[in-house]
Amino acid sequence: MAKEGLGLEITELRLGLPVDNNGERLVSGSKKTKRVFSEMMISSSLDTDGANSVVSSVDIVTGEVEDDSVPKDKSQAVGWPPVCSYRTKKNNNKESSKAIGYVKVSMCGVPYLRKVDLGTSKGYTHLATVLEKLFDCLGLGVALKEGEKFEYVIIYEDKDRDWMLVGDVPWEMFKESCMRLRIVKRSDATGFGLQRDLSLQLEHLHNRTWLTSTTSRNGKMIKAVYTQRFTDCSVAVAATRHVIVVAASDSYDHLIIRHKWEKLG
Amino acid sequence: MDRAIKLQLSTSEMNYFPDEVIEHIFDFIPSHRDRNSISLVSKSWHKIERYSRHQVFIGNCYAISPERLIRRFPCLRSLTLKGKPHFADFNLVPHEWGGFLHPWIDALSKARVGLEELRLKRMVVSDESLELLSRSFVGFKSLVLVSCDGFTTDGLASIAANCRNLRELDLQENEIDDHRGQWLNCFPDSSTTLVSLNFACLKGETNLSALERLVARSPNLKSLKVNRAVPLDALTRLMSCAPQLVDLGVGCYENEAEPESFEKLMAAIKKCTLLRSLSGFSEVAPVCLTAFYPICENLTSLNLSYAAEIQGNHLIEFVQFCKRLQLLWILDSIGDKGLEIVASSCKELQELRVFPSDPHDEEDNNTAVTEVGLVAISAGCPKLHSILYFCKQMTNAALITVAKNCPNFIRFRLCILEPNKPDHITSQSLDEGFGAIVQACKGLRRLSVSGLLTDKVFLYIGMYAAQLEMLSIAFAGDTDKGMLYVLNGCKKLRKLEIRDSPFGNAALLADVGKYETMRSLWMSSCEVTLGGCKRLARNAPWLNVEIINENENGRMERNEEDEREKVDRLYLYRTVVGTRKDAPPCVTIL
């Protein structure tokens, strides 16, 4: 059981925001690690060794620190873009003033967004019918059920900011955790949530080890609380507020989530 | 200045005229800049001008004190005051920074000035101030509050109840604590003088019957902008009793309209043949926009920038029939295609603002506008002179084309959403594109730049933007030279605001006298240090040099007096009244 390359820090549990050697806060979200969904989709189809490179974004492990104030990249800097705070508030208020249950739906290739009310929706079949009407796209119901033959798949972003396949979890659980919906082409979504294999990369930054996520615009990183490199495989354990994941693979640079547990309570 | 010189030449003749005649001549010169020039001609003219000046504009409320204002212009009737710096709109200025109205109202009231009109921007207004205002000035006619805060609907109730001659109450984009009271009821039954009422920014319930009665007894009402609490059927009734409306802001109709209500609304709208300006539409079902088709050809002004629920195709369908449009504020959901249609339909367009519907690119959809839309507008709208354009991407070629198509720009504000973004085709900086704009648009007075920019763009701005008065810079430039090009070149510069750019002490201190010709300078997240600011303050006692600290608790707690410490936010402005006394702890005035 060889421990290679990482040093002793690996087995040490540490919490908190990433800092560099000078104790300065490290802003994660360099252009390297931040990848927009569409880029990720493209790279996933280009991935030659077949490993799924679609990843989920997860919160930074923290028991104490709120990271919302740290700008992850320039486009999230305070006061940017220069839109009046009155105008921004008015748009945000609109979101909260809508009944809980409304989620935005976007469809690839369609230049506008729609909204569906999950609160009044009765189940997956009903949802599929509503979506079919909204986007004039027959067959979404089939996509939900069979999952294999239709051109499009429906995915949703859950509270953890993971993108999941619609239909996997019980309806009530889906209603509660769904934040928004997307209808994407099956060909763009290979490996995406279909086998629940989510791939992460380990990055070493300033004496710490991080599992990097890419779907989120914020380029957030999750601290690996345990990593171990064995002769023929590597394992990493990481946790967020809601889930614990265990990732493993024969390649240290390309771990795949093997288990994911939702935290209760 | 030409006019003043000509007048000076004939002063000797003019002195044979009695003061009243000279005063009458001055009445024809309303522009406060010209009046400032006139007052410099001679002592007697200064005196005549003082007493005949009725309108005063104060661009920075800390540049002068209320007492000095009243001493100089005792016959003041209309006052415009601006408080917080522009970047306060983007949460860069602490809430308690300043800009309080009360000392002004207090002084004006004590001096028994015959105030009739008050226009405020970014000031902190309290209910007490509004109450004092309402009781102090019998002839008070007009209150316009833009981006102000600190008051509640109780303050509005005082205005409504006590200002017997009120003609205008215009509340634009203010943060008002809505106590859901009955402020509309406070307009006395005898109040029939209203010409303009705008309460679109109020968030709470509105007493609909009070509103309807008020509108019904106001035959001179030309402008009415209601808030989201006014539903469709109430709007129908309002419009039915005010068919003379010229300017309408609609509220919110959350539910889809019943066909009957919709018919009634359309009928009421058809009667409003004088309607020229339309706004509001937040949380509105798209179909309700169609109710306005009968009058859309008459519209000269259309503000749909809050209509986030109306999708691009509906917007386009409507706007393409507004052939007389001069002003259009819209969301980028209209798309490049929509802008092309605007360009071919709205030939009278003078001012365009395109706001981002998704500023942080969270939706990952493709409806934002690009350089294509901008070029189309510039090609199709020959009268365009003001533009504010938020977009995802830009190219030098597009900007060069725009400059060629529209050399008449007075205001050109371009915001590329991603900072430092280069020309997306050539990957070069956008220096040449903006350079073309300033070179072609000789009358340019206001400019905001964005995208990847080096010092070169500022060289161009300094060289060509001779009329430039206000410049906004973000995430741009390489060295102090950039800022120096601007300070040395733009002779008419009044306001300079810079954020996140590598300009430091050398640029700040090069020409201290320049700041006396300017209203203000803002620099945040730049390279200026505390030491540099201190030196500036020492060399220019007629400037207020304010340092706004990051931690709002104390005056520069850590690294106290470390002169190499970079200053987070610097705001300096010329003043004749020295350091202000009302600065909060987070502001240090050097």
From TrEMBL, chain A:
It is found in: Nucleus. It comes from the Eukaryota. Residues 100-186 form the PB1 domain. It holds the Pfam family AUX_IAA. Keywords: Auxin signaling pathway, Nucleus, Repressor, Transcription, Transcription regulation. Gene3D superfamilies: Phosphatidylinositol 3-kinase Catalytic Subunit, Chain A, domain 1. The keyword Protease does not apply. InterPro entries: AUX/IAA_dom, AUX_IAA, PB1-like. Its main location: nucleus. The keyword Transcription regulation applies. Homodimers and heterodimers. Belongs to the Aux/IAA family. Aux/IAA proteins are short-lived transcriptional factors that function as repressors of early auxin response genes at low auxin concentrations. This is Auxin-responsive protein. It comes from Brassica rapa subsp. trilocularis. The gene is A06p002050.1_BraROA.
TrEMBL record, chain B:
It comes from the Eukaryota. Residues 17-58 form the F-box domain. Signal peptide: none annotated. The keyword RNA-binding does not apply. Coiled coil: none annotated. Keywords: Auxin signaling pathway. This is F-box domain-containing protein. It comes from Brassica rapa subsp. trilocularis. The gene is A08p041250.1_BraROA.
